[in-house]
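To fix ideas, we now present one chain and its tokenised fold:
***
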Amino acid sequence: MERVKDRPMAIKIVEHALEYEDRVQAFNRRMKQKGSTWAFYENPIPQWIPKKGEQSVWRQYYLAIDDQEEVRGGYCLKRQAFWFGGQVHQISSFQGPVSESRVDRRYSLVAVHMLRDMLAREPNLFAWGGNRDLTRMLRAAGWWVTHAPLCLKVVRPYRFLRLNRMLRNSTSRKCILDSLAFSGLGWVVLKGLTSMRKIVYHCPLDAEYTIEERFGDWCDELWLASRESYNILAVRNQEALNLLMPTDGWPPVIRLKVELRNQIIGLAAVLDTPMQNNPRFGSLRVGTIVENFGPPEHSGRIVAAATNLLEQRGVDLVVSNQTHPSWLRGFRANGFQVVQRRRLLALSKSLQRRWGDTQSLLLGLHLTTLDGDGPLGLD
């Protein structure tokens, strides 16, 4: 008898809504029961940057639903105003896609369906962060793919060597790191490397900062005065910054206004997070420079202000994701190690055409930890 093949699964993509909340909960239960730590947002209204009216940046959730009306995956689009080509344009980044293919191979094409749907809704699309599976899928779809650096500064070497989980992933490594910590050699090496970078790159320490409750009118002036120094970046005016970092929501940042001889030269936003059993950071106290903006020539001063605040608060290390060469130099000048190829950056074919030559793209592109998914896992 001839075997009847399973018919192709019909998948439709819809905007998340209250009517689907119970089905997303069922999806999350199936994922957990089959051993996955992945899940999707059950509440259809995003906690971070929900759309409430006319605004320059917002997030929206979408669901993949099969012909049995069951949720098989989901993704998030973050629509945002960007400055390039001397004008403001709306483009999008995405979070996900999360699909049931992680626990059931019958749904292996669901992620592809979602990627196609994203591009149909927003052709000018980019990814800022993602895992190896996403990287492979985007390469196969013809996206331009590279990886941007992570800036890292160890402030307390002993605690870093003893508590971090990034490096302590085997018995032999634990023994080596413990020896470095207990002997004091680790302190000497890490502090020596930090001092050497400061000497090589040199950063003036003549700027001052104040902590602000919210981003005020001064941000609009800073935005207009500084945006021409970059080829591509997300809009950083008062409205956008307060949407991205609200005073009563996530992420719970500390906002800094940076001044040089009574002139505003930049802004920064930082997180101070005591971790507990974090997969990467263990129980370290992690400082994150979430956002930094101003004229590139003042990058070192702005980074110095943010780093100084975090060090005074007692963090064990400071991290930040960056792309622009001037800002990478500013981080190096403050003793940061720039670790190459740590965060995915990928552009759709349409956005490649809009942004031009990808070989020189990173010379004028300014992305920070705030872009894309924001400081997920660092709060």
About this structure: The chain has a mean pLDDT of 93. The first strand starts at residue 11 and ends at 15. Residues 179 and 185 are 8 Å apart (CA to CA).
